[in-house]
Design goal:
Blueprint: H1 2-23, H2 27-46, H3 50-62, H4 68-197, H5 205-211, H6 220-233, H7 236-243, H8 246-270
Length: about 270
């Protein structure tokens, strides 16, 4: 038993010593380590449990490193971190791809929405333009109809005014004709009166009444009205304007004087 323990301790020490020689990778020490391994090789061969001897020797070599378990744990952790990093990179790349696809889908959807909105606005603008065009055409049509009615009304008024003017001119011509006939008649009556009453004496009441064209039984107001009428008809200026004859004007002056004397005679008689 003690021999086994001693042999194990010796092999472990030999491994530890070999690890010391190879640890710093010093060429001189490495050469000594190789010679030492050559020296130990027959011992490993002659050992009954060759693999156990190798394991004990390897454990002695590991003892040269500080905290070998911690280092193994660190190496394992680094390995796991590397695996996790690769897995995370793959997941991140997958997420990036999904986000890219989602972004492309969103952009395509937004593009379609924008195109649809542009088409809707275009249709709305076309409808507004068409509506405004119809309203403008309707307004132009109404204005045209109003203008046509105004022209017809103005034409009707012009025709009415022309017809009234023609009627007025016709009436004026008829009135002038009647006035000329009346003036001619008055002139003839005045002349006949002058011829009939020129020989009468106006100082006589009976003759004065005959000059006035009245009988002797009339009232003073009737004689006065007849006097004014005859004086108006036989006014010298009016007679001259109607006839243009100075002889007729002189006759009218004589008639007016006769009427004045006859009127004075009647007034004296009846007042």
């Amino acid at each position: 038993m003690s021999e086994l323990i001693f042999t194990t301790a010796l092999v472990m020490f030999a491994g530890y010593l070999a690890g010391k020689l190879f640890k710093g990778f010093n060429p001189f020490l490495v050469a000594i380590g190789l010679l030492f391994l050559l020296f130990m090789y027959p011992v490993f061969i002659e050992s009954e449990n060759e693999y156990v001897t190798y394991a004990i020797f390897g454990f002695g070599v590991i003892l040269n490193f500080n905290q070998p378990v911690s280092r193994l744990r660190s190496w394992f952790a680094d390995l796991m971190n590397l695996i996790s990093l690769r897995r995370f990179s793959a997941s991140y790349a997958n997420d990036i791809g999904q986000q890219k696809e989602q972004a492309e889908a969103d952009l395509y959807r937004q593009k379609q929405e924008i195109e649809e909105e542009i088409r809707r606005q275009k249709r709305q603008a076309e409808q507004d333009i068409e509506r405004q065009r119809r309203e403008a055409e309707e307004a132009i049509r109404r204005e045209s109809e109003n203008l046509k009615r105004e022209q017809e009304r103005a034409e009707k008024q012009r025709r009415d005014e022309k017809r009234r003017s023609q009627q007025s001119n016709s009436q004026s011509r008829q009135s002038n004709t009647q006035n000329r006939h009346s003036s001619s008649g008055n002139s003839q009556n005045s002349q006949s009166s002058n011829r009939d009453s020129s020989h009468l004496d106006p100082t006589s009441f009976a003759n004065a009444c005959e000059i006035m064209g009245k009988g002797q039984g009339c009232q003073l107001a009737e004689y006065k009205a007849a006097y004014k009428k005859l004086v108006n008809q036989n006014h010298p200026d009016k007679v001259f304007s109607r006839t243009g004859s100075k002889a007729e004007k002189e006759k009218a002056e004589q008639k007016t004087k006769q009427l004045n004397v006859a009127w004075e005679t009647i007034k004296k008689k009846l007042t």
